[in-house]
Amino acid sequence: MKKKILMSLVFIMAMAVLIACKSKTKENSVNNSKISDETKIIDEKKQTEEKKVPEKTKEEEILENMSLDEKIGQIFIARCPDKNATALAKKYNLGGYILFGRDFKGKTKNSVIKNIQECQNASKLAMFIAVDEEGGTVNRVSTNKNFRKYPFASPQYLYKHGGMERIKKDTKEKSNLLKSIGINLNFAPVADISTNKNDFIYKRSFAKSPKETAEYVKSVVNVMNEARMGSVLKHFPGYGNNKDTHTNLVRDKRPMAKFEKEDFLPFKAGIEAKAPVVLVSHNIVESMDKSAPASISPAVHKILREKLGFDGVIITDDLAMQGVKKFVGKKNAAVLAIKSGADMLCSTDFLNDISAVKKAVANGEIKENDLDEHVLRVLRAKINLGIIK
């Protein structure tokens, strides 16, 4: 009897152990299944994330295939030389030419079109072809009767004799005329505020309040965008009542609060309207940077980027102007401008400036990664305007 009981107990214990082992095996199987499922989910998530890596933009693809010389050339809008313009555009991979009155004087429309097209055909990357056709006292094209019967009128005249609608109509006609001859960038509108007839910039300005000037700038940029004509807001951070920086070293002593309440408003309006380019002046604006003209001031460029939120192309005023030349002395203004944050350089002495920038990249004074960022902005603007197809 005792033997039977003992055998029964052994059997029961054996069964208990067997059941426990099976339960553990099942649990392990479930756990392994869970781990397998979780691993599968992680792998699928990783694959999805890899697929989400953004494709390279068109400008990034172009940049990848550019040499250092091509990158440096792209950041220059050069004053169009009297001779060998086509050959120089090709040799130095220039980002653009800016044309002045001499480039139209005594010429026919067809001859100008031919000259521009020859430069474009010779260039690996399509160029900005720019002018200052503000209307009024600053016209490069319409002063030649072969292009227009009368020069374009000033914004002040147009507004007085037809309000904002006449300004819009004039802007459309101007953009269409410029495009018809191969110009794709107009250094306008003037966003400076001036209501004093004695100011240097007065005749070129809208000559109204900050709010009215902002509305004017917004309207002009919108029409130019519709025509796919590049606009350039100038002269940041605002000329005010300062002297002409073509011939003078100018110090602006106005407080920052005045710029924020007044001068910045037209620029903000133009930026919000998607103006692709902002031109920075050579004024030394003491409330922003006492130590340098705006065009070579990191502080001024930072304000334009961060305070006004501009992510387009920043271009200098002409680096041959006395307002910057007198300040830099033997230093190179082009190098200083790039180091300060400018994307493009408006240069008359572009051969020497290109050489100086190349040397600065070679010795590490300008980082090639920073140069790449400037080139990307230039390429992006050209793509958005349909200049680079």
TrEMBL record:
It catalyses: Hydrolysis of terminal non-reducing N-acetyl-D-hexosamine residues in N-acetyl-beta-D-hexosaminides. Keywords: Glycosidase, Hydrolase, Signal. Residues 68-380 form the Glycoside hydrolase family 3 N-terminal domain. PROSITE patterns: GLYCOSYL_HYDROL_F3, PROKAR_LIPOPROTEIN. GO terms for biological process: carbohydrate metabolic process; peptidoglycan turnover. Transmembrane segments: none annotated. Its EC number is 3.2.1.52. Belongs to the glycosyl hydrolase 3 family. This is beta-N-acetylhexosaminidase.
